[in-house]
Write a structure and sequence with these properties.
CATH topology of the largest domain: Rhopdopsin 7-helix transmembrane proteins
Distance between the termini: 82 Å
Strand content: 5-15%
Largest sheet: 4 strands, antiparallel
CATH class of the largest domain: Mainly Alpha
Order of helices and strands: HHHHHEEHHHHHEHHEEHEH
């Protein structure tokens, strides 16, 4: 590969990562562990891209200063080589399980291969095990070169298996970017191993980072910030598509859920408690549905659920499951009040020719009927 082309590829990849890093630092919620891990992943790849370019420029250049800089750059390069794979493993584990405690428990055990590799890199200046520079200041791979590669592959293989094993826990919109990420750097490293003068490994990681970044932006655009479910924009788009794209023999159902007395909860217990109620409600609804069912926060205290169900009795089973899960939560809740839902639901009838707004008004009216019934039942109890 031509010298200038190698540098150009690295510079282009560096600029992509640098722009993503700046935007992520500006936009990211820095207290969240996934933001910290993503920033660290980008930063580690920026360092490796810079060092890789520096190594290409110094290879074969004579002089004590050049030799010293090249030796230091080579050591740092080998120390850092498995770090992006390590950070990606932690990032992906969090995206799957959303559990900070799990991440904190795995940080140090997973770090052991990185530390072993760092020790070998530091000693390679004298042993030549991973790499060595000859008398002409030209880089050569050592007999243990593949150990560093194997450590990176080990991380990527491990997290790929974790992703596949736990795919039922992962939303469809997250699964593809998570499983795709390791493929590009692995492909780049294989090409780089076979064709010694190629430089594609860190550029492959840069491209994977770009894919994850696009996925994050897409998530922000279509997701409600507070609850983590889809937002109204995405709900309107999907509902309109379902109505316009009629499929013979198939239909869909809609469920509109309103949190009862939500204004009173906000006024009496504060907005932080109100936000917590919204988060819990979204989680309860999600946990009552199948992985491919759709739920969005449609208004301040309203959620819209869309399901590929055409049988009213099957639809009622899902509604009953939501109510059951809500009742079970209230039995063990620490709140000084019970969370309750008013629910309107129906199967969409394509022969009715209802528009998106007409169908929403229809299930909204059913929801308010249910709300009146709930109020009447509560007044009888008191």
């Amino acid at each position: 590969m031509d010298y200038y082309l190698r540098i150009d590829i690295n510079i282009f990849s560096f600029l992509i990562c640098f722009i993503i890093l700046i935007d992520t630092c500006i936009r990211a919620e820095k207290q969240f562990i996934q933001s910290k891990l993503f920033v660290a992943l980008i930063g580690s790849n920026l360092i490796l891209l810079f060092i890789d370019s520096l190594q290409w420029m110094l290879d074969g250049r004579q002089g004590q200063v050049n030799v010293a800089i090249y030796s230091a750059a080579s050591v740092i390069s080998y120390i850092m080589a498995p770090v992006p794979s390590y950070l990606w493993t932690l990032y992906a584990v969090y995206q799957i399980f959303r559990d900070e405690k799990r991440i904190r428990k795995q940080v140090y055990p997973l770090l052991v291969p990185v530390l072993v590799n760092a020790l070998l890199a530091l000693t390679s200046l004298s042993t030549g095990f991973l790499f060595y520079l000859d008398e002409n200041n030209i880089y050569h791979r050592g007999r243990g070169f593949f150990l560093t590669v194997a450590i990176s592959y080990l991380y990527l293989a491990y997290i790929s298996l974790v992703i596949l094993w736990n795919r039922r826990l992962i939303e469809k919109r997250f699964f593809f970017p998570l499983i795709l990420f390791p493929m590009l750097p692995v492909l780049g490293s294989i090409i780089q191993i076979i064709y010694y003068c190629s430089v594609l490994l860190w550029s492959g990681i840069a491209l994977s980072i770009l894919i994850i970044y696009i996925n994050i932006q897409n998530y922000r655009l279509h997701t409600d910030y507070l609850t983590g479910v889809y937002n109204r924009r995405e709900a309107d788009y999907l509902l309109k598509n379902k109505i316009h794209n009629k499929t013979p023999g198939r239909s869909f159902s809609g469920i509109l859920i309103d949190i009862d007395n939500f204004k009173e909860i906000n006024d009496r217990y504060g907005h932080l408690t109100g936000d917590k109620v919204l988060e819990i409600s979204a989680e309860l609804i999600k946990n009552s549905l199948r992985k491919d069912d759709f739920v969005a926060r449609y208004g301040g205290d309203e959620f819209l659920v869309l399901l590929n169900i055409k049988d009213p009795s099957d639809l009622k089973k899902f509604v009953d499951r939501i109510k059951e899960n809500l009742n079970n939560y209230n039995l063990h809740s620490s709140f000084p009040f019970r969370i309750s839902f008013s629910i309107g639901y129906d199967v969409y009838d394509y022969s009715s020719g209802m528009s998106k707004d007409q169908f929403l008004n229809h299930i909204d009216a059913l929801m308010y009927q249910n709300k009146k019934m709930n109020l009447a039942l509560n007044s009888l109890k008191h």
